[in-house]
Amino acid sequence: MRKVAETADMRLSNVQYYFKTKELLLAALLEGFLLEYADSMRTLALPDKLNSKEKLHHLTLGMLNDIEKSECAMVFKEIWAIAERNHGVKKAIDDYYTKLHQLLFDALKKMAPAKCETQSINHAVAILLPFIEGYCITSSNLKVPADQLAKQLAMVLYTLLEQPQ
User: Fold this and answer.
1) How far apart are CA 162 and CA 165, in angstroms?
2) Residue-wise over 18-55: b if at least 16 C-beta within 10 A, else e?
3) Cβ(149)–Cβ(157) under 8 Å?
4) CB 100 within 8 A of CB 90
């Protein structure tokens, strides 16, 4: 808490007034980070001129590239470990995944074939979200170029979206 107060150029007592425990401070910092990261997913621009398969490729490639060039993999590994022991962090990460699920659902809904059912979109998100999280951990060890992986993932998602339930 002292380091946070120093970094924020505040008195320690002010930080402690708003955050009674280190856990509450950590949860607040984490919530801000996670919400900002989830909002950054909205910035993955999808050109209107692309067809659904191309948009899926563009979306998945953007997510894979973001993971490879940011420090999010390191941060998320720490967050997941802390969430196992800290209720506030667990809640923040659960809220993040709820928001990310909705963002991905909305994005996939826009790319899905016209008669795609809601259940198919939910299934596609259920594949995409854990894939991205797993990729966050394993990307440095994979020998498949991100573009090739994004094309394959886009094909899988499109196939799932176009099939009736």
Assistant:
1) 9
2) ebeeeeebbbeebbebbeebbeebeebeeeeeeebbbb
3) no
4) no
Residue numbers of the chain with a pLDDT score lower than 70: 37-47, 68-73, 165
3-state secondary structure of 44: coil
Structure tokens of 97?
């995944």
Q: Which residue has the tokens 């993999």?
A: 73
pLDDT at 56: 87
Residues whose CB is less than 8 angstroms from the CB of residue 27 and which lie 6 or more positions away in sequence, other chains included:
86, 88, 89, 91, 92
Q: Which residue has the tokens 């990310």?
A: 100
Residue 25 makes CB contacts below 8 A (sequence gap 6+) with: 1, 4, 15, 19
